[in-house]
Structure formats: C-alpha cells, structure tokens
C-alpha cells in the first residue's frame, strides 16, 4: 500500500491507542505494531483512521492514550465511533460503560480533533503544497475556478484565475496531474477543508 502509486488514500481502523484495551477487544493488534504502520503510511499517503470510544473495559487512562496517539501523529482525519452494543457478542456480555461517560468522551475527542485540524490547516498558510488537479469551471465573471486535492492531506485547494492565466498554467495539464501551489487562506474548516490558493508554480 505504501509503495503502490495507485493507492492515494489508506483507511485503517486502529480502534484505540491502548494495549490494555486492544487486548480486551481481542483484535490481535498491539500499539507498537499500529505505530509502525502509521509511521510507514503517514509520510507517503493520505491516511484516515477509525477509533472507538466507550468500549467495555475502556478506562479513563485508555481513553487519554487514544487521544495521545492521535495527537502524536496529527491524525486529525479520524472517524470516531461510539461503541454500539451488539447482542450475542463477547463485548455485550461485559459491563457496559455508562451512556453519559461515553457521550462525554465522544464529545471531548471530537473537540480535540477539531483543534488539531485547525492548527494543521493554519500551519499550511504561506507554504508550498502539492495537489492533484480535480476539475475547472468557468464562473459568471468569466474567471476560471480550479479545484485540486492535496496529495498527502484530504484538503480541497481552490485557485481562481483568468482564462489567459489558466491556459498558461494549466493548458498542458490534465486531471490528476500534480501541481505545486501556495496556500493563502482557509475558507472552510469543517468536513472537507477548503484552502484558497494564491499562486500556482509554473
């Protein structure tokens, strides 16, 4: 996956950041193995992960270790799932964590991820980033809006230019070609982040 150029996004459920809880979940994974995978993937591919909060047996320390793991590797592109009890499973026979505790942990981790995302996006401003060309559309004022997606981050970059400039900078390029652009302003922090681009390097 890491070396395959056809793979742009790797999605992997790490479940949590605690060996104690991984053992309870009986996933067969360890924190050490998980970190080795993350270290191999993050510098080379877009990476989305999934964690569970409120699994039976999860202590406050386990929960904080999960947050620490996400922060350590800046995994802001993380899907968080509150534990859902399924009848007949091993976990359903364990003592369940109170709903209010699960809710508070869920809200806390979402807030942490939101702050991580904002910090990351703001850190890109003024820097050069590589992005794939997705599409281009003519606007009502005859300008052309070009949409691109980050090579290493699930971010949409937008560049607006004249038809003449578009022909000069994008005329010999196709969809999915990679360009280098300068990030200037974050337009949207929520869901899929959007950053306005001030410059495309020719």
Radius of gyration: 21 Å
Pick out the low-confidence regions: none
Q: Percent range for helical residues?
A: 25-40%
Strand content is 25-35%
- Main β-sheet description: 5 strands, mixed, barrel
Structural class designation = alpha/beta
Q: Give the CA-CA distance, first to last residue.
A: 31 Å
- State the total count of DSSP E strands: 8
Strand order of the largest sheet: 4-5-6-8-7
Shape descriptor reads: elongated
**Series of H and E elements:** EHHEHEHEEEHEE
Would you tell me the overall average pLDDT? 94
Number of helices: 5
Pick out its properties:
202 residues; alpha/beta; five-stranded mixed β-barrel; three-stranded parallel β-sheet; 5 helices; 8 strands
Written account of the structure:
The structure is a single chain. Helices cover 32% and strands 31% of the residues. The chain is α/β, with parallel strands linked by helices and 202 residues long. Helix 3 runs parallel beside helix 4. The radius of gyration is 21 Å and the shape is elongated. 20% of the residues are buried.
Summarize the structure.
This protein is an alpha/beta fold.
What's the arrangement of secondary structure elements?
Layout: E1 9-15, H1 19-25, H2 31-41, E2 46-53, H3 60-72, E3 78-82, H4 99-124, E4 128-138, E5 144-150, E6 156-161, H5 163-170, E7 178-188, E8 194-200
Parallel strand pairs: 1-2, 2-3, 6-8
Antiparallel strand pairs: 4-5, 4-7, 5-6, 7-8
Helix pairs in contact: 3-4
């Amino acid at each position: 996956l890491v070396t395959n150029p056809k793979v742009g996004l790797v999605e992997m459920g790490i479940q949590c950041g605690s060996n104690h809880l991984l053992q309870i979940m009986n996933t067969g994974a360890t924190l050490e193995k998980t970190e080795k995978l993350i270290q191999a993937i993050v510098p080379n591919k877009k990476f989305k992960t999934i964690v569970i909060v409120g699994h039976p047996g999860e202590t406050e320390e386990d929960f904080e270790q999960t947050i620490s793991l996400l922060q350590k590797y800046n995994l802001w592109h993380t899907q968080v799932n509150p534990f859902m009890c399924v009848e007949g499973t091993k976990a359903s026979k364990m003592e369940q964590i109170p709903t209010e505790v699960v809710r508070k942990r869920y809200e806390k981790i979402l807030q942490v991820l939101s702050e991580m995302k904002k910090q990351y996006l703001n850190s890109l401003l003024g820097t050069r980033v590589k992005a794939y060309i997705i599409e281009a559309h003519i606007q009502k004022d005859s300008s052309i809006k070009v949409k691109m997606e980050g090579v290493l981050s699930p971010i949409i970059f937008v560049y607006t230019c004249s038809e003449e400039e578009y022909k000069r900078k994008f005329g010999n390029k196709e969809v999915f070609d990679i360009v280098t652009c300068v990030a200037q302003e974050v337009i949207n922090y929520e869901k899929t982040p959007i950053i306005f681009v001030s410059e495309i390097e020719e």
